[in-house]
Amino acid sequence: MGRPELPVDHTVPARGVLAEALRKLRTTSGLTYDELAARTGLSPTTLKRAASGRILPPWETVKEFTSACGIPPAGLRPVWLKARIAERGRLKQLRRPRAPELATTFGDLGEAMEYFYEAAGAPSLRQLQEQAGGRHLLPVSSAARIVNREALPASRQQCLAFLTACGLGARTAERWAQAFDRIIRHRELETTNVLVLHEEVHRQFGQHVRPLSERLRVRKPEVAPDREHLSRQRVPRNSRAA
Predict the structure, then answer these.
(1) 94: helix, coil or strand?
(2) Helices 156-165 and 140-147 sit at what angle, rounded to 10 degrees?
(3) Cβ contacts of 82 within 8 Å, gap of 6 or more
(4) Alpha carbon distance 175, 214 (integer Å)
(5) Which of 173, 31, 63, 45 is nearest to 116 (CA)?
(6) Hey, is 207 helix, strand or coil?
(7) From CA 4, how far away is CA 20, in angstroms rounded?
(8) What is the DSSP letter of 181?
(9) Which residues, other chains included, contact 29 with Cβ-Cβ below 8 Å and sequence gap of 6+?
(10) pLDDT tens readout for residues 128-186
(11) Distances from the Cα of 90 to the Cαs of 19, 93, 123, in angstroms?
């Protein structure tokens, strides 16, 4: 008989809850870690660490662990997700998005995208791509820019793909896609209006400045007479002093 397990580490409470759940599954199944290892293909050490509470195991490990115990993994997904969010600690620093109908700026969209990503457990970029439906819908490079708040989705389709990858339901994702459309149209209209205004100002400015420049055009000065030349000219005889 092996040595008893160390107590679960509850330094991160949500992580400890997950570890307790995994231990309970193993005890209920009556399997040893060696037997679990034979069923999962994972090492006994990896399985023990997953149920220790000291680390957060990857979701794939939790799935294998749970399935080997004869339990559908979906039941532990919310428990793992809560532990993942708690370990990252970033979601609590973000503002929960308002209703998509109230989003009016690119900043609102960017904040919402970041929140949904963190709420999904911050999956890897490859996982995002797979969950979005493939590279043609969400390339890894695009996912990286969206996640890092460097850019918004390039299109409505990409917006829907990203939101779907973050686990939003179809109706909620569609509402945010409509917000995306509205904000993009508004920005395009603003840009068009600015260009039209710029052209009109330039035209009116040209109408007023051109006549003024013509009036102020510098003309060639007339050549002043040569005084020395004039002094040499002869005075008419009839005007000489007597």
Answers:
(1) coil
(2) 80
(3) 14, 17, 18
(4) 59
(5) 173
(6) helix
(7) 15
(8) H
(9) 68, 69, 70
(10) 999 999 999 999 999 999 999 999 999 999 999 999 999 999 999 999 999 999 999 98
(11) 22, 5, 14
Give the pLDDT confidence score for residue 216 in this predicted structure: 55
Distance, CA of 55 to CA of 22 (rounded, Å): 13
Give the residue from 192, 136, 148, 143 showing the smallest Cα distance to 163: 143
- Any idea which residue has 């006549």 for tokens? 211
Going by pLDDT thresholds of 50, 70 and 90, the confidence category of residue 200 is: low
Residue 215 dihedral angles phi and psi, to the nearest 5°: -70, -30
How many helices, marked H, and strands, marked E, lie in the chain? 11, 0
Question: C-alpha angle 165/169/170, rounded to 5°?
Answer: 95
- Residue 86 and residue 13 in contact, taking contact as beta carbons nearer than 8 Å: yes
pLDDT category at 210 given cuts 50, 70, 90 is low
Q: What angle do CA 31, 33, 34 make, to 5 degrees?
A: 95
Average pLDDT over residues 24-44: 96
Q: How far apart are CA 194 and CA 187, in angstroms?
A: 11
DSSP class of residue 216? T
